[in-house]
Structure formats: structure tokens, C-alpha cells
Amino acid sequence: MTEEPLIYDLSSPGRQGVRSPLPQFDPVDPGDVLPSSELRSDLPLPEASEIDVMRHFLRLSHKNHSVDTAMYPLGSCTMKYNPKVNEVTARTPGLADIHPYQPPETAQGALELIYELEALLAAITGFPAVSTQPAAGSQGELCGLLSILAWHESRGETRTQVLVPDSAHGTNPATGTMSGLQVISLPTADDGGIDLQNLKESLGPGVAAIMLTLPSTLGLFERRIAEVVELVHAAGAQVYCDGANMNAMLGRVRPADLGIDVMHLNLHKTFSTPHGGGGPGAGALAVQAHLEPFLPGPRVVRNGDTYELADPPPTSIGRVHSHLGNFGNLVRAYTYIRSLGADGLREAADDAVLNANYLRAALSDDYDLPYDRTCMHEVVLAGTRQRRLGVRTLDIAKRLIDYGIHPPTIYFPIIVDEALMIEPTETESRESLDNFIDVMRRIAREAESDPDKLHDAPVNAPVRRLDEVTANRRPNVRRQPPASGT
Amino acid sequence: MSYAPNTDADRAAMLRTVGVESIDDLFVDIPVQHRDPVLDLPPALPEIDVIRHLGQLGALNATSDDLPSFLGAGFYRHFVPALVDQQLLRSEWYTAYTPYQPEMAQGTLQAMYEFQSLVCDLTGMDVSNASLYDGASALAEAILLCRGLTRRPRVVIAETVHPAYRDVAATYTSALDVDLQVVPATSRDGTSVRPDNEPLVEAIDDRTSCVVIQRPDFLGMVVDADPIVQAARRHGARVVVVVGDPVSLGLLVPPGDLGADIVVGELRSLAGPPAYGGPGAGMFAVRSQLIRRVPGRIAGRTVDLEGKDAFVLTLQTREQHIRRERATSNITTNQALVILGATISLSALGRRGLREIAEQSLTAAHQAAEALASAGAVVATDAPYFNEFAVHAPEGAAARLDRLRSEGSVLAGVDLGCVSSRFDDLILVAATELTTASDVEALAAAWARTR
After folding, report:
1. Which helix or strand (DSSP H or E) is residue B282 part of?
2. For domain A347-470, which CATH number applies: 3.90.1150.10, 3.40.50.10490, 3.40.50.720, 3.40.50.1820?
3. Do A401 and B101 touch (CB under 8 A)?
4. Best residue of B45, B48, B54 to probe chain A, by most A CBs closer than 10 Å
5. Is the ipTM of this complex over 0.90?
6. pLDDT digits (tens, 9 = 90+) for B260-318
7. Chain B residues with CB-CB distance to A279 below 8 A
8. CA distances to A105, A126, A253, B393, B427 from B424, in Å
């Protein structure tokens, strides 16, 4: 594939893409109403025709892999099919062309949708209260930890530590730091679960919470969850659940029933809102009743037949979004849940888990399986056998690109050597999985017979492997601005 | 129905491979008493029915087609060219994820690089990231950056910074050792309001990590930033500038030229309609020396092993997936699709288009002010402004807005009581290039009718 110039390189002085609207008024000269010192002298934007802009971005799009292109088994990201109807409903004029500050009387449909979505998520997770304000999972985590701290404070306690298993996603410890907490890492037991003895020793009067990922990033359900919850609660601390992997639990277990106190959901993972090339996501927060007073606000409440926006109570941690979160994604998630219903959601979890176990069973002859037990929605393999042949997990990943499949998450969880974290999701068919298995086996053979094929990969992508070292050492993060005066 | 393609025959064959009898056997690690709850959800809806249902919910909301709207206050309706949404609906853009495998994501990465370049050119800054969640969290992250940089506890924040942004900054810093001081930046004289930098200048001291101002400010005013920048320099404090409406950058001096160390703002209006406030896209641009402290993703330009130009996520050691508890932020997803829309929009509008819509926005606001004055209103803003201004409502903003809507059928603006109770007699009126002459006539007529 040829290099695509920057949009700036398609610019020619005097060219214009789309035209601005016809004037509605006699023009006001900016120089008449603003001091000349406040007006900029130049505006160095590109000047490109509409067709050039369209072609430029179309050609760029061709350089992307996507869920709609082929399998995208990126572990922990739940790259499931994004239903097209979601994009239709999100563009309903009455749900798109509405302003956050229009009076609630003129936004009853939007408020009802938020209220009902929160109720649906409450029913799915078992928690009595949900806030859809957080813009992403990591913001949900921040709200969750701040809510826990506010709850401790309301009981006259100051706690300064948070326990995070070493298998956790990096956002968990990062959120701990943003919440002003000292992060204490918990080692994982041999079976991939929490080490109860170590947990007991780590729990003390300073511990505010434990952040658990359920199922864990190893793709395993925590078999000692009841004991963990009991120990944590006995120490006066709270159980936070990172709900990134909720897709495995839909209709199979409600996390609230397990005694978890607070959890966030990634609507862009479990509830099919698209990943958008990196975002936007949406990160609803679900809590038990004792934490509800601390949820971010304002919140949507129902008063008879009307919906209102209630100011947060003084106990609330406050606001985390400029309005009520990523509303467009709330519309998509609501559409998805209403489209599937209880049976469809459970079927999604069932097929997601079955698909992952199918891959586990089919690939364990050719790749090491560090935790040899039934997995949930994802399976973590290790390229350790291939490493002895001089082939790294990175090479396996890059070779998958040549076969038109997006690599799994690699080198994560960090506690697994040469990790390949594979999450097929429920929307891959058996044939698609068989193709993946076939390719993975072929790559295992290539590692034995022709390792350079892997070292050289990818050869069928728009670019070969990149020089990331220079990119970091001498960052070039914008086009070079033209010399002044030109 | 779950969009899952497997048939019962597929499942049976797969279960045999796995070596279990039934799917239930895969869930045995869940405590038995909590397994298989009944979810109390409404019945599943086929595609057409779900579209109808959502259409009904949408019909309960008033759009700008239903009621002429002068609502702004950080969320603006701007012209977004038709090609933007055509692109955003391409699967290759919206069903991809974070470009962790650059060889398969050159489209997203180059678009991010172009976005970063456009932001730098618009703001006069050296480095932009590839967006944070929204303008509010971008401000919170800027404050956290300055705290880490200066190790000073105090933040001076102008009252004329968006009140929701101030609230979010307060939430983000609530568990940390940060002293947020909201300082008045205006003076009232009867019905009028004008900028007053004095309290801000006085509030900046040697313990101040940064001072935060907004341009145009929340009231729409374009205020001389120099006294603030000079005071910050004297005390070693950093200057954070919130851009009120990104379209204003088509006309106004870029914040980088004024001495900003960090520029933040909300870019949603460049990519699509307000969508009830989200998803937005937080702009975050800094001076080059701060690059290694920036939160969130950054695309960099490099070459592949054949020397071909290429793009890659860079400086990832700042980020949580590498640095964990020592990361610059916990942010993971960004607002990639929204900034893609903004990038395409800015490319299609170009140098001339952006300036034109900025000029038209300014024109529409000033013409609306004149029409309101002719209808008997007192324009309260006593300062240069871009596309928003305050009108005095003697009976109180809330009461007047209510009547303007119920009796005049216009959404005339926002109650400035949200900034401070000192402003609860002021209505913030916004206009853009999408404001029509008939919208303005409707506003003036409504004002006259409700006098």
C-alpha cells in the first residue's frame, strides 16, 4: 500500500472544501467589536477540495483492521460485532440534536432513556443503583474509589491503601494513585486466583478496598470469591469489581449477589457500543445501596410521570463529566439491551465462554497454557515453547497480521511470560474460530521450520515493523509548522 | 438473539472438543447458589421495533428544529459537513480499537497525527495528545499535571471558567492535596457585567501551581490575558487556558501566543450535534517541555524497517498499561472517533471555512444582541465578546427563561446563576453560523412579548 500524504500536503492556496452557510445577517466586522490585539493574523489550516478530503480519509481507513473486516480477538477488549441498528438509533434527531442545557421538560425522552438504562444495568448486575455519568471504565474506577473513600469518611475512618492483584489491568493501580491511595500489589496464587493467606496478611485497618477483576484478566472466575469478600468485609474494607469482563457473566451471575460493593461496566465492551479506533467508551458505575449517596451527580430521577435532573446530595463525590456522560453511547447500549433481552444477553455470555474454551482446547497442544482449567470469555496462552525456538510472542502476533487476523492482547497479563490473551467474543462463528485455530497452528509450525518468516512479519500489511525507539527518543508528534512569514 | 452465529449443532460439536457435556459445565466456578439468576428485563425487540421505540423517545425531546435555540455555554451547534458522518460510519474507523498494533492501524494513527497537528496550529501550542474524555476532564488533568510539575498545592481558577469544568476539577482533585481557589473575574455595575482581572492577579502567589482562565470566557467575553500571564510568570505559576468554543480559534489570537502553558477545551462541536452533552472530546495541548507529562495517547511519526513513513503510538511509558501506579493518568480510552470527525471537518472547512463560520458566529451573536436591545432588553455584557453575551432579566433569569419558552417558544439561553448567585439575573445567549435571521426574529419577538 502506498504512503498517504498528510492532509496538509493536499493543500493548495485558495482551495476550499465545503462552503460555509449563506450569510443570514449584515456582516459584523470582527475588527469593529474586538480589539485588533485579540485577532489572529494567520490561520495555518489546510486548504483542500472536498473530494481530496474524502479520498484522503477513505484511503486512510483502508489501512485499518476492524471488527467488520475480520476476527479481532483482542483480550480484555471484547471486540464483538457492533450492531448497525445502534448507529441508526444514536442518530435519531431527537436523541442527537439536543442540548444538555435545554429544560428537562423538553428532554423527557433523553432523561427517560438514561433512567431506564440505569435500571436495566441494575437488573443485569444486581446492584440497586447505577450512574451512567462516567465517560469510560477508568473514570468509573475513579468514581468507584472516590465513593468508597467518601463512605469510609462518613463513618469517621481514613483509609489510605488499596489492594490490587498483580494480574490487574494497569488502570486499577493508576486509579488508586489518582485517588490518593497507596497501591499494594497482591501476588496471584498458583491456580490463577487470589492467594487467601497473602490477602489476610495484606488486609489491615488502612485498607480502603480491593480492586478485583472478575473474571480475572487470566480469563478465570475467582473460585474463592466468597472467602475473599468475607475477608475484605471483615477488615472493614470494600470490594471493587472491575467489570471489563462482564460479558462472561451476563445472565449467569449478578456480581452484586456475590457481595461485591461497587463495579464499573464498560459499555463499549459488554454492551456493543463501538470502540471507535480508541474511544469514546462509556463506563457506568453500579453500587450497593450504602454507596448510593456518594454516586456522581446530577442524577436522573422519576417523579410521577416526569423525569427530573436532581442536584447531587452533599454526600456525592460530585461531577465527573461536563454533563451526563457519553450520551450517544448510552443510546447504543440501551438499544443493544432492548434488542437482546434477558435470553439474548445470556446467550451472548454462553457463546463467548464456549468460544474461548473451544480455542483453549484446540490450541493447547501447540501453545503453552499457563492455567490449565476451564476459562471464561478469554483464554491466556503463552508463547514460551516458541521462545525456545527463538521466536517471541511479538513475532507470533505480527505473523497473525499477515494472515489477516488482528493479534490478541500480548505480554498481558504481565505475570504471564510471553502472554497471548485471546478473547474471541460470542459473535465469531465456529468457522471463524476454526480458521483462527488453523492459522495459529500454522504459525506454530512455521516457528519450528522457518522462524524467520515470523521474525520478518508482517509482510502483507500497509507497513512493516516500525522504528519505535527513534519515535520515542526524538518524538515527532505534529507536522513541522511552516517557518514564520511563509 | 445475540448476534451470535453459532447453531445448536455448532455448539454441540464445540462442546465435544472442549470435553464437557453442556455449556452449564463451563460456569461451575461460580458459587452454585448465585448461578443463573433470572434477569428481570423487558422482552427482546426486533430491529424495526427497537428503532420505533427509540424514535418515540426521541420525539419526546425538542430539537433545534422544534424550538429556535440560543443555548451554548460550552456546547455549540456548528456546521458539520456531510462527508464527516459518511466517514464516521465507515466500519474501518468505528469498529477498530486503540492502535496497539500499528501495522494494522495506520489509518487511525495518521488521522491522530493530523489531528494533533491541527490542534497545534489552531492553539499555537507545540504538542497535542489525541484527546481526553471532554473539556472538563481535560481541565482536571491539566491541573494534575501542574501539581506534579510544581509540587505546589494551590490552583487559582477564574469564576468565568465553565462551572461544570470547575466541578469536575474539584472531583478529580478531591482526594489529593490540592487547594482549588475559585476567584471572581468580573465586576457588576447595576445591570452590566464586565471583566475584572484584579482579584485573579492578586490571588496568584508563590504557592500557586497554575492559574486557569477561559477564552472566550463562560460569559462569552474576550478578556486581555496579559496581566494574568505576567502575574503567573512573576510567581512561577503555570497558565492553563480553557478554549470556550473551538470555532473562536478561527478568529482569535491562539492561546499559545498569549503565553499559555497548557490549552484545553471541548471539540465536540466540530464533529457533530451536541448529543445531550456527549460523547465530547477534550483537547489537551502543551509546550514541548511538558511532553513527557501529558496524559493519554499520542501518535508519533516514524519509519518502518524499509524506511517507509509510518505512525505509531509514542511515549507510551507515560501510560497506565506500562507505568501502572506511576502513570501520568489512569486514562485508557480516548475520544478517537470524535476527534476523527473534528479532523475531517477542519480539513473540509479549511482555512477559509473556519474563519467564515467564526465570523458568522460573531455576526449572529452581535445581531441577536442588537435585536434584543431593540425589543427592550438590556444587554449586560460590557466588554468585547465572540458569540455569546449576557442579557439582564430583572425578574430573574430562571423565571424569564421559563416564560420565553412557554409564551415565546424559544430556548433563549442559559441561566447564569449556574456560575454564581451574583448572576442569577443574567441570561447567557449564544449564536453560531447555524443561527438564522428568523431565529433571531423569534427571539426578539419572544422577548418583547414577555416584557
Report:
1. strand B282-286
2. 3.90.1150.10
3. yes
4. B54
5. yes
6. 999 999 999 999 999 999 999 999 999 999 999 999 999 999 999 999 999 999 998 88
7. 131, 279, 333-338
8. 21, 42, 50, 9, 8
